[in-house]
Design goal:
The chain contains two helices and three strands, in the order H-E-E-E-H. The protein is an alpha+beta fold. The chain has a three-stranded antiparallel beta sheet, with helices on one face. A hairpin with a 2-residue loop joins strand 2 and strand 3. It starts with 8 loop residues before the first helix and ends with a helix. 3% of the residues are buried.
Amino acid sequence: MAASVDIPPRVRQFASELAQPQPMRRGSVSERAIRCGKANCACADDPKARHGPYPSLTQAVGGKTRSRFLTAEQAVVARQQIAAGRRFRAQIDDYWALT
């Protein structure tokens, strides 16, 4: 099949933008407060006395939801990568609509 020479400029622009690799991920970052597990700690009985909040990354992996705690620096990077992934998916949808 021969390539079409009449490719609209907007489609060329989308193709160029999509060709730029960047770190991306799916999921979400949220803040979680936790109980420490010590029986005599206030957090065992009072939900308002829980420790944190700590940033947590939640993702679907193999059909199951997985969460893990992140450092503050990791949370910043994860949020940037999640935002990049969402922009990429939106660009793909726009690209499909144009073509």
